[in-house]
Write a structure and sequence with these properties.
The chain is of the alpha/beta class. The protein has two domains: about 120 residues, no CATH class; about 130 residues, Nucleotidyltransferase, domain 5. The protein has a five-stranded mixed beta sheet, sandwiched between helices. It is elongated and about 75 Å long.
Length: about 325
């Protein structure tokens, strides 16, 4: 019998009541994470069997490592195995607090803040936050396409260059060395945000084709690389001429996607201050997750992020492949 994915608890007050305990006590943190991952039906993470039991110490209490054992495959495991917690020596109560902090703050929480609150080193706090962002990220191998009215726009994230040479000027928008981010927002629905190596017609059309259903109505600004998209979508393609100082004509506007960008940039400037291009996609995934779960309570959003952590691993360094 295979284990089932538990649903988010219907009693919101129970989540809010248990989260603070999980953030301060290791046993409560383990019990909380086990409940969110397995619900009332704990199963083996190796073979999926439900014939498992908690290992006990000589005093009859739970094993100090909070181990489980499967009677079918005879393997031991903990709630950490097969998640972003695996092979981490960081106490689970700190993981619970970091998940809660990341999900409850509209503009995110920095690793320095987690360091101050938990007493961990900055390296450990950053390790933990990157894995939480990885847990929040959606699997974009086969993305669910957006429908209805879809707004598309791009922005550029980063500070002013430290050394202003002839080829490194502090420009705005296209032509800058800042990292480009493209976002697609379904009005009243979800956002899909991605980093791109370069903004051009080829890259943008590929992103739009993968993430927007052909029945949708597309709305963009008047940038040249959006030209020629009208025949691709049954709902048509409307463009708003920002170059003429026009930002809304009836329902033709990109204000929704620009609202998402405003939250993203406020977080980058006010919370994180400096983000490398190498890791920017993780921060973008974090803001995307919070936007798409904006109608949830903080506790529900935290529980969903914890459940999404199952089946994901992110290592310090990918193993070297040998012939």
């Amino acid at each position: 019998m295979k284990q089932k994915t538990p649903k988010i608890a219907k009693d919101k007050s129970e989540i809010v009541r248990n989260l603070p305990k999980a953030c301060s006590d290791e046993s409560a943190a383990v019990a909380f994470l086990e409940a969110q991952r397995w619900g009332d039906h704990p199963g083996c993470v190796h073979c999926g069997s439900m014939d498992v039991y908690q290992m006990k110490g000589r005093d009859g209490e739970r094993n100090k490592r909070y181990l489980w054992r499967c009677r079918d495959c005879d393997k031991q495991y903990t709630v950490r195995v097969g998640t972003v917690f695996e092979d981490s020596g960081i106490p689970l109560r700190h993981w619970c607090y970091a998940f809660w902090a990341a999900c409850a703050s509209k503009k995110g929480v920095s690793a320095l803040q987690i360091k101050r609150q938990t007493g961990l080193s900055y390296k450990s706090a950053l390790f933990m936050m990157h894995r939480i962002r990885y847990a929040m990220a959606d699997d974009l191998a086969e993305p669910e396409q957006l429908t209805g009215i879809v707004e598309v726009d791009e922005t550029y994230v980063g500070g002013k260059p430290r050394h202003k040479g002839p080829h490194n000027k502090a420009k705005m928008g296209r032509g800058t060395d800042k990292a480009p981010v493209v976002a697609l927002v379904q009005r009243g629905g979800n956002v899909r945000a991605l980093t791109l190596p370069k903004v051009n017609a080829k890259n943008l059309r590929q992103v739009i084709r993968q993430n927007v259903h052909k029945s949708a109505r597309l709305i963009t600004d008047d940038a040249p690389f959006y030209k020629g998209l009208h025949p691709k979508f049954e709902g048509g393609h409307d463009r708003i001429k920002h170059c003429d100082g026009v930002y809304a004509v009836g329902d033709i506007t990109t204000n929704t996607v620009e609202g998402f960008f405003s939250i993203l940039k406020r977080g980058m400037m006010g919370t994180f201050h400096a983000v490398s291009k190498k890791h920017l996609h993780r921060y973008v995934s974090e803001f995307q997750y919070r936007y798409n779960t904006r109608k949830m309570e903080d506790g529900e959003r935290t529980v969903l992020a914890i459940q999404k952590a199952a089946g994901k691993r992110l290592r310090y360094r990918e193993p070297v492949k040998t012939a």
